[in-house]
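in:
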C-alpha cells in the first residue's frame, strides 16, 4: 500500500518530535496533518469513554534507567474474557504437558521441539501493535502465557508515546524469564521492532547469542511453521486464514490491522478509548489463535478433534 504524502509528513514529524523528547510537538504534528480516512470508523455523538471504562486494567510502572515509567496494564484470563472458550486453556495445558503429541521430532524445527519438551508455563506468546512503519513507536505489547492451567493475557499499553519505554522494559523482564518465545512473523518483524525501539530507549533485551544467564530464549515463529505445514494446502498462511480454517473461528467486527495505527493516534489526541477496546480485542484474538496453532502443530489435530 502506498503511503500518502500527508501521512508520510505526519509520521516523519512525529518521529522527529519523539526523538527530541518533544511531546507537545508530537501532538501538534498529529493535529496539523490529521488522520487517514481509510477504514475510519463512524464517530459517535456521545462523549469520550475513558480507558478504565472501555478496557478495565490499571496503571502500573517499571523502572527504566533509574526513572519510573508508568503505563496501563490489562490482565485477564481466557475464562474472564469468554467463559464458553475456557476449554481452550485446558486443551493447551494438556497438549504442552505431552497429551496427544504426535509430530516428527527429527523433521521438526529445533524451536518447535523446545516448545514441545517444555512445560506450558515456559511458553510466552507475544504480539505487537505499532504506530506504523519500521522504526515507529510500539504502543501495545500483548503477551499470553499459561498459569495454573489457565491462559492469561497481559496487554501492556502505552497511553501516549512517552510510555513506550515502560512497556518495552516490562516485556524485556518477561522475556528474561521465558523458556520459549512464540510469535507470528516475529523473526522478521516483532523482535526486530522490539530491539530497534529498545535500543532507542537504552533498554537491554537478551541477545540472541549471549551467555546462558542472559540469552534470548528459543524463538518459535509460527509463520515459518505454518508455511512448512500448509503452504499450497490453504489459500495462504496469514494468521486469520489459519484461524478460520484450523480454529473454525470467523471474526466479525474486527478492526483491520491497517486501521490500527490511526485509531491509536486518535486515542492519543482525544482520550476516547472506544477503539482501543477494539485494538485490544484484535490483539487478544491474535494471541489466542497462536496458542491454538501451536496445539495443532504438536498434535496434528484441529481444535475440538
Amino acid at each position: 500500500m502506498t503511503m500518502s504524502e500527508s501521512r508520510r509528513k505526519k509520521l516523519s514529524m512525529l518521529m522527529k518530535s519523539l526523538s527530541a523528547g518533544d511531546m507537545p510537538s508530537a501532538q501538534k504534528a498529529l493535529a496539523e496533518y490529521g488522520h487517514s480516512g481509510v477504514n475510519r470508523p463512524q464517530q459517535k455523538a456521545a462523549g469520550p469513554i475513558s480507558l478504565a471504562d472501555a478496557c478495565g486494567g490499571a496503571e502500573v510502572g517499571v523502572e527504566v534507567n533509574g526513572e519510573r515509567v508508568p503505563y496501563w496494564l490489562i490482565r485477564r484470563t481466557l475464562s474472564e474474557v469468554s467463559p464458553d472458550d475456557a476449554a481452550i486453556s485446558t486443551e493447551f495445558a494438556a497438549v504442552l504437558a505431552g497429551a496427544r503429541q504426535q509430530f516428527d521430532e527429527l523433521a521438526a524445527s529445533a524451536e518447535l521441539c523446545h516448545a514441545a519438551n517444555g512445560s506450558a508455563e515456559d511458553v510466552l506468546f507475544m504480539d505487537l501493535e505499532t504506530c506504523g512503519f519500521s522504526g515507529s513507536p510500539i504502543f501495545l505489547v500483548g503477551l499470553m502465557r499459561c498459569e495454573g492451567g489457565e491462559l492469561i493475557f497481559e496487554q501492556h499499553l502505552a497511553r501516549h508515546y512517552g510510555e513506550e519505554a515502560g512497556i518495552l522494559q516490562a516485556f524485556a523482564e518477561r522475556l528474561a524469564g521465558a523458556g520459549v518465545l512464540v510469535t507470528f512473523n516475529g523473526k522478521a518483524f516483532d523482535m526486530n521492532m522490539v530491539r530497534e525501539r529498545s535500543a532507542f530507549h537504552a533498554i537491554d533485551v537478551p541477545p540472541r547469542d549471549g551467555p546462558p544467564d542472559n540469552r534470548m530464549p528459543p524463538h518459535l515463529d509460527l509463520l515459518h511453521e505454518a508455511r512448512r505445514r500448509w503452504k499450497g494446502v490453504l489459500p495462504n498462511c496469514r494468521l486469520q486464514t489459519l484461524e478460520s480454517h484450523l480454529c473454525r473461528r470467523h471474526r466479525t467486527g474486527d478492526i483491520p490491522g491497517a486501521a490500527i495505527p490511526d485509531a491509536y493516534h486518535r486515542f492519543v489526541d482525544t482520550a476516547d478509548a472506544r477503539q482501543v477496546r477494539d485494538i485490544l480485542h484484535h490483539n487478544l484474538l491474535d494471541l489466542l489463535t497462536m496458542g491454538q496453532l501451536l496445539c495443532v502443530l504438536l498434535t496434528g489435530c484441529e481444535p475440538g478433534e
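note: The longest helix spans residues 274-299.
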